[in-house]
Structure formats: C-alpha cells, structure tokens
Amino acid sequence: MFPGAGRLNPAEIKRALYHRDRRKTIASASHPGGKTPMILDLDPDRLPILETGRLRLEPLGIGDEVNLYPIMGDPEVMAFWDVAEIDDPEVVARIVAAEVEAMGHGRALYWAMRTLTDGAFLGSCDLSDIDRWRRRAEVGFMLGQEAWGQGYALEAMQGVIAFAGVGGVRKLTARTHLGNRRSEVLLQKLGFSEQGLLRGHILKDGERRDCRVFGLLL
Ligand SMILES: CC(C)(COP(=O)(O)OP(=O)(O)OC[C@H]1O[C@@H](n2cnc3c(N)ncnc32)[C@H](O)[C@@H]1OP(=O)(O)O)[C@@H](O)C(=O)NCCC(=O)NCCS
Description:
About 30% of the residues lie in helices and about 30% in strands. The protein is an alpha+beta fold.
C-alpha cells in the first residue's frame, strides 16, 4: 500500500492506484527498460577532445580564465548574454571553476575552442543542462570578436552536435536574446528551428528581456 492510503476511502484508493499505475506505465513506455539511459556516460578524468577541419575543442580547464577574460570583458560579445560584460578577472575565474566542477559531476561539457594550426584560443562552446533521462541538453557558444565571420562557431557546433548524437542525446535546445541575429543565423544553419518565445525571461540592466528558444531533434 502506498503512503497515505489509510486516509482514503476505497473509491479514492482505486483512483489513486489507477493514477499511480498509469504514471508508471507512461513512464516505462517512454523510457524502455525503465532505467536512466546512459547517454554521454563520461569519465571525468578523460573528458572528450573533439577535432574538426580547423579546430581542436579541449575540455575547459582551470587556467582558461586568462583566455576567457578578454572575451567576457567585451561589451559587444556580451551584448546578448544573460549578464553584462565582466570587468573582474576573479569573477571569470569563478565561472570557469564552476564549469569545471559541473563537468566533474557529469552535468555539462565546456570546451575551449582552439585553432589546429597554432592553438590560438578563439572562444568556448558547451553542452549544458544534460538531462540523461530525457536525452536532452542545451548548447551554447561564444567567440572573441576577431574570430567572428569565419565559420568557426558553425564548425565547432557541428562537431559538438555530432558528438551529442553519437552519445545518445536526442534533443538539443538553445536560448537566444531577441536581437541576437548572429546566433539565430548560426542555429538555423545548424538545423535548429524556433520553438517559442520566453517573455521577460531575463532581467538585465534593469529591464526584462525576451528570449527565443530553438530546438533540434537528433
Ligand atoms: C554567435 C557567434 C558565435 C556567431 O559567430 P559567427 O562567426 O557569426 O558564426 P559562424 O561561425 O556561423 O560564421 C558565420 C560567418 O562566417 C562566414 N564564413 C567565412 N568562412 C566560412 C566557412 N568556412 N564556413 C562557414 N561560414 C564562413 C559566413 O559567411 C558568416 O559571415 P557573416 O557573419 O559576415 O555573414 C558570435 O557572434 C558570438 O560569439 N557572439 C557573442 C556571444 C553570443 O551571443 N553567444 C550566443 C549566446 S545564445
């Protein structure tokens, strides 16, 4: 008997059991085997390095704050980010530390994007909010301005999407602030379609901003 059943009359118990069983049936039908699928089953000590035609994506590490600080300190790069540009290197170091910790717990993957030719740091990209049960994750990307307009983000994200698909992810999402045309064009080139509008989703500079949600089924 399930907890609290003693306080219900027989008809209520029947209804409650029906709902409980129905929930279970629905859950096992949508997740064959009934176990959490082992998608992106990663060893935190051997996180994946991805290579594309021109790029090497290496797991972000402690120390990469030095590379990210000039990018996250640029108001144009951060114009459509959830937070304003960051003028304190300590804050970027804390962000990197939090991202490294999230990778250690299997919640996300953050990569430093470097050129294959000379290892120059171009920016970062990620798979975050990894939901193993629903086989979902969110993508993100950020390049220093001097790397814009050369197809690097497209190339990196094609690699990340292929990696996610092979790892068992079946749905990717992305969220952009209204007006972030470059990101929207990139997502459309990657095959994402617009799936909705989140009104007033972000509070930035004292104003509420709308966001677009994009999705891609793999
Ligand atoms: C979003 C962002 C990563 C897009 O960068 P991007 O360089 O415009 O994106 P792409 O890699 O798709 O490159 C496309 C451009 O490269 C050009 N290009 C040059 N060589 C190319 C190649 N080999 N393949 C593809 N495109 C190429 C395209 O013509 C296009 O140029 P255009 O912008 O002048 O039309 C970048 O603007 C950025 O970092 N923004 C700030 C952070 C941000 O907002 N992140 C997203 C939050 S949701």
